[in-house]
Specification:
This protein is α+β, with helices and mostly antiparallel strands. Helix content is 32%, strand content 27%. It folds into 6 domains: 278 residues, no CATH class; 203 residues, tricorn interacting facor f3 domain (Immunoglobulin-like); 140 residues, no CATH class; 125 residues, Neutral Protease, domain 2, CATH 1.10.390; 145 residues, Immunoglobulin-like (Sandwich); 200 residues, Sandwich (Jelly Rolls), CATH 2.60.120.
Length: 1173
């Protein structure tokens, strides 16, 4: 190969590329996209949205390389066709094309010309990112990361895509078809490789872990480099194949052999690198399978329990040298012929001893079988010496692989953090109970039945020697002597953690609790804003703790509360049976590096930039200390008590550019997980453990009941939950490992509340039952209790046996269908000023008495409702009385307290009940909950809630009624929008973008909060919505459409007898329209646009407001009647008129005629026969 020829071809192609205006325009556009992304999403120019203070040094350079790597694939798909395929026109390359350079020199010369140009463009792109990084962001800076991503991310992707595109063009030899293949391939690897095979088959490398922790660096450098080398060499191999398939010259056979040999060698080595990367992961999966089998094998073997354990540990490099002395008790009713223990498989056992000497043992991976007889109730002392490393694959064997390896919630934008379950390094060590770094008698997980996990409560003492300059973090009372640290347990725990490294420690004791914060060296800047709170921090911590205790209904059970910063790659998983992830330990929370995703730049946040000026001006009048206290308190509450974490992915960025995507947005549209940092388990799961062999889920059920006690009852059941239980049971969910933990939490909460309401039908009130459960838990702190014992005590107190309800409640996979009618809420007493004057009241009032005006003070209410169960399965409805009170604490938070009185009633299959009941107190709201049923909505608001109606009826009663009570009366015909006789047609202008991103429009019912958003000048898409005030027995819904949209509604029925009929339409409560009006006012994040709104017709409730007209056409026997209806009063039948109809079809049509921007509504139409006349 002639290097001069090679350089000549490369030089010509580089010049051609740089002279191309299309090429210049594309790279200009690429730079604009990357710069805008950095400025909008990563700079500090928009502090309400971004803060470089809370990011890592790798985020800006990675995202720069990420965007460049993806965007460069587009021109590469076209370049090969432009440079290789000879057209009839003449250009400067003809001087070379027709010279006797070999195909290898020609093709490689072109590539040699392209690649340096693209790498220079990548370097320029990174310079833009570097400037923003240095001058427009507080993010930590590391220049070498720019070089790292430039070499390992951009370059291999460029070589592969260039080589592959050249190969495709030379092989297919059709430019259009080649480009199509390349674009499809590019789309596949960009959009279809997310988490597939851990990123192995991603030639661009953008799905690989790319974040760098300040303290631990890259999470998997070996695997990362293996994958990048694999695709780099494959790219070179495809270049060789392109030479072989290039038809410009007939190569000499010897040259073809040489090229083929080089190609085979390059591709073989590349595939070998890929195989090594694959085998590394396959070997991990194999070990995980073996460990899971071991847990299953010994799941039913009788085991002891460890009541006390002393652990001495010393770290030598990446090895542990440890000794464990523990007391094991046989709590079973049978003698043990051997003691079963569990220890990490990479920890080698040196010896096992009792008080008499060495004991023989056998080992199968993590399982240790010690030959030792232990009688029932006997306690024995054992000593185990062990040393070695830690295999992290022993962790989370009960977590499904799709969840275990998913990176959706463990990344910044598209920069994945990687996943470390434990750390055992020279500089940092993080060991959690899950990894079995000390011997235990009971397994921490049960891969087959995740909820069936017996738990020990053990008193631990941890002694760590040879710590040097490191700080040691664990649970218990801390004692330091030289380079030795001891933690003495104050309470029995499920397990103990060990965390060592170089930290800056801050501590403060408030009342009886010591609060500690451990941050990595140099991360003091994260605490900007806390220094201002130096004097008020104790009261802030006290208030936050009191609020947590109020919400949990229990006192904080530990004497310490530790927040410890961990590397960004450390990950744990929320598991419902534990009520938390391993990030939350008793008295200890592991927080992500630099507070990623949770902490805020306090000093920027308290400036309240980006919020409405009126609010900002009012808030900024408060002292800086007060604003900081409010912001920090808000962080602690959201971090420690937040239930969910959402993955918006790129949607969060796209919504900033394309507001259409934010219309009708719902959190149900995005993926979500349970927050791994919720500390409720410190109050519940870590303090008591319920065990039931027949129904292992009952422990989680009881904890769910207690969690919900001190939060507002979620009476309305999510539609997804209803849909799941309409065909599945809780037992199905219990064994379905494909269900996401967050969704299972929703299922569990609904079924837990259902069980409480079932028990309350024939027993005490729900509040009394919850008080009993809480008291029982307090009596059994730090103990494992048998559910049967709890059930016995509960039965003695309330006369209710859970076993009578659990079998059907646990296995039922059908839902009832309720019809609800005549739901009324009436105030008990006289109407306001009923025959009484103010003068008379004042005259009769004694001195010092409060004036009471009838009907104007809170009073008990009488509730009346008819319910029919139109199904073959029993169901339950509940009447919920809510009282709301406010407690102004004068602290950083105020309490809004809600007390509930819930009365539940069983409705047998195919039967009906008329229920009349009276509230015990004066509720602020009263609703009917249809619980788990097909009725929509789940919550029914009764008439009289907003307009007070009065009654003197105080007799509680339940009467049997039949189905006829719910059907139209004699001579009545009703066609609802849910019936076959109704049709909503026309008016569809749904755009592709809206269809793609707005999930709400894909459902049968609109899921907004009675608010539809559209751009000014656009028409509302016709649809259906669920509404309490709508007509309906099983489903209360109505339809809507925009005026002038071309849509229409039709109600059609058959008239059987001739005569005159009154025609009525039912008026539902409206859906309002939010019409965006964008004006260019300059400034702001929305590209110089501000938003104002206008609403459609606003309905009045009294009927005394202005008329609201809708235009109807009534058709029968060839005759048409044009009618204008006044629909200003929702919740009532409105008479359209009386008409004479002949037998046959009769149709009522609502046209799209109306006032400008009026929204039109339709629900039900009723025909009432009034006679022949």
């Amino acid at each position: 190969m002639n290097l001069h020829n090679l350089r000549t071809v490369a030089c010509y192609n580089s010049k051609l590329l740089l002279r191309s205006w299309l090429f210049r325009f594309f790279f200009f556009l690429m730079f604009c996209i990357i710069i805008v992304y950095h400025v909008v999403s990563q700079s500090d120019l928009f502090p309400p949205y971004n803060s470089g203070l809370i990011t890592l040094s790798s985020f800006i350079p990675f995202m720069n390389a990420y965007w460049f790597t993806i965007l460069q694939t587009i021109p590469l798909c076209f370049l090969a066709g432009m440079l290789l395929v000879k057209e009839k026109k003449i250009d400067s390359m003809d001087a070379i094309y027709y010279r006797p350079e070999s195909n290898a020199e020609y093709v490689l010369g072109i590539l040699w010309g392209i690649i340096p140009v693209f790498m220079c463009m990548a370097a320029i792109s990174m310079c833009f990112g570097l400037v923003i990084h240095l001058f427009a962001s507080k993010a930590p800076f590391d220049f070498w990361l720019y070089l790292f991503y430039w070499v390992t991310l951009v370059f291999p992707a460029l070589v592969f895509m260039a080589g592959f595109s050249f190969f495709i063009h030379c092989w297919v030899r059709n430019r259009a078809f080649s480009i199509l293949i390349l674009l499809i391939f590019t789309a596949l690897i960009v959009f279809g490789m997310d988490d597939f095979q851990h990123g192995l088959f991603d030639p661009l490398g953008v799905t690989l872990p790319g974040a760098f922790s300040k303290v631990t660096g890259h999470p998997d450098m070996t695997g990362y480099l293996l994958q990048r080398c694999c695709w780099l060499l494959l790219g070179f191999g495809f270049m060789g194949l392109a030479i072989l398939f290039f038809k410009r010259l007939s190569n000499h056979p010897i040259n073809r052999v040489r090229v083929m040999g080089s190609v085979m060698a390059l591709m073989a080595v590349g595939v070998l690198f890929g195989i090594f990367a694959y085998l590394r992961q396959a070997e991990k999966d194999y070990r995980r399978g073996i460990y899971a089998e071991m847990y299953d094998k010994y799941a039913d073997a009788p085991k002891g329990s460890i009541v006390r354990q002393d652990i001495d540990v010393r770290q030598e490099g990446t090895r542990l040298v440890a000794e464990s002395r523990f007391v094991l008790r046989n709590s079973t009713s049978e003698a043990l012929s051997e003691v079963i223990l569990y220890l990490n498989p990479k920890l080698d056992i040196v010896s096992v001893q009792d008080q008499e000497g060495n004991l023989t043992f056998e080992r199968e991976h993590q399982v240790i079988r010690v030959r030792k007889d232990v009688s029932p109730g006997q306690e024995v002392e054992l000593r185990i010496r062990y040393e070695g490393g830690i295999d992290p694959q022993i962790c989370y064997l009960d977590v499904p692989d799709p969840v275990l390896y998913s990176t959706a919630f463990h990344r910044y934008s598209s920069c994945r953090y990687g996943k470390d379950f434990v750390l055992l390094r020279d500089d940092y060590t993080l060991l959690i109970p899950e990894c079995l770094w000390y011997p235990v008698a009971l397994p921490p997980v049960n891969p087959k039945v995740s909820y069936d996990i017996p738990k020990d409560f053990t008193m631990y003492t941890l002694h760590v020697s040879g710590v040097g300059d490191k700080k040691v973090i664990s649970q218990g009372k801390r004692e330091e002597t030289g380079d030795e640290v001891t933690y003495r347990g104050e309470y029995p725990l499920h397990g103990i953690s060990l965390y060592m490294g170089e930290f800056d420690r801050r501590a403060i004791t408030v009342d009886s609790t010591t609060y500690e914060l451990y941050l990595f060296k140099g991360h003091d800047k994260l605490l900007y804003g806390l220094d201002i709170l130096r004097d008020t921090l104790p009261s802030l911590l006290r208030d936050t703790k009191e609020q947590l205790e109020f919400e949990m209904g229990r006192s904080y059970p530990y004497s310490q509360f530790i927040l410890a910063e961990v590397p960004i790659s450390f990950v744990s998983f929320y598991r419902n049976e534990r009520g938390s992830s391993e990030c939350v330990q008793p008295g200890l929370v592991f927080v992500p590096e630099r507070g990623m995703g949770y902490w805020r730049d306090v000093m920027e946040a308290v400036k309240y930039k980006g919020v409405p000026a009126e609010f900002r001006d009012r808030v900024m009048q408060e002292p800086l200390e007060a604003r900081c206290a409010q912001m920090v308190g808000s962080f602690f509450r959201s971090f420690l008590t937040g239930d969910r974490k959402y993955d918006f992915g790129s949607m969060d960025i796209l919504r900033g550019f394309f507001p259409v995507l934010s219309r009708n947005f719902s959190f149900s549209d995005v993926d979500q997980i349970n927050s791994p940092y919720n500390v409720s388990s410190m109050f519940l799961n870590y303090t008591v453990s319920f065990r039931s062999r027949d129904y292992p889920v009952m422990g989680a059920v009881l904890n769910s009941m207690l969690r919900k006690q001190f939060r507002r009852f979620q009476h309305e059941v999510d539609k997804k939950v209803v849909n799941y239980f309409d065909g599945h049971s809780l037992k199905d969910a219990f064994y379905d490992r494909s269900l996401k933990a967050a969704f299972f939490t929703d299922l569990l909460e609904v079924k837990s509340e259902e069980m409480l309401r079932l028990l309350s039908i024939n027993g005490g009130t729900i509040n009394e039952m919850l008080d009993f459960i809480r008291g029982y838990v307090n009596e059994h702190d730090f103990k494992q209790v048998d559910f049967n014992d709890f059930n016995q005590k509960f039965n003695e107190r309330f006369g209710q046996n859970w076993e009578d309800y659990i079998p059907d409640w646990y296995t039922r996979d059908q839902l009832p269908t309720f019809w609800v009618d005549d739901f009324k809420v009436e105030v008990i007493g006289e109407g306001p000023m009923d025959g009484v004057s103010i003068e008379k009241l004042l005259a009769n009032r004694k001195e010092g008495e409060t004036l009471v005006i009838p009907g104007m003070t809170p009073s008990p209410v009488c509730v009346k409702v008819k319910v029919f169960n139109n199904s073959n399965v029993e169901g339950m409805v509940s009447i919920v009385f809510e009282e709301v009170s406010h407690e102004l604490t004068g602290k950083t938070w105020n309490r809004i307290m809600s007390s509930y009185s819930i009365k539940s009633y069983l409705i047998p299959a195919n039967s009906g009940k008329e229920i009349v009941t009276v509230s015990d107190n004066a509720p602020s709201s009263t609703v009917l909950a249809t619980n788990l049923s097909r009725h929509l909505p789940n919550i029914v608001v009764g008439r009289g809630m907003f307009e007070k109606k009065f009654t003197r009826d105080t007799v509680r009663r339940v009467l049997n009624i039949d189905k006829s009570s719910f059907l139209p009366g004699e001579g009545e015909i009703i066609v609802d929008n849910e019936d076959e006789g109704f049709k909503l047609s026309g008016g569809s202008d749904k755009s592709f973008v809206r269809t793609l991103f707005n999930k709400a429009v894909k459902d049968k019912y609109y899921e907004g909060s009675r608010m539809v958003s559209v751009k000014q000048g656009s028409k509302v898409e016709p649809g259906l919505y669920i509404e309490n005030m709508a007509y309906g027995l099983g489903i209360r819904s109505a339809a809507f459409m925009d005026e002038g949209s071309g849509a229409r509604m039709e109600w059609q029925t058959r008239i059987d007898r001739e005569g005159e009929y009154d025609v009525y339409v039912y008026v539902p409560s409206p859906v309002h329209v939010y019409r965006e009006k964008r004006e260019n006012k300059g400034g702001g994040r929305g590209f110089g646009m501000s938003v104002s709104s206008s609403f459609s017709v606003s309905f009045g409730g009294s009927g005394n407001g202005p008329e609201i007209k809708q235009y109807y056409t009534i058709t029968n026997a060839g005759k048409e009647y044009e009618v204008v209806g006044n629909v200003a009063t929702p919740g009532e039948w409105v008479l359209l008129g009386t008409y004479r109809f002949s037998p046959g079809e009769c149709k009522v049509t609502l046209s799209d005629r109306g006032e400008s921007e009026q929204l039109l509504f339709g629900d039900a139409v009723k025909w009432v026969y009034v006679g022949k006349k």
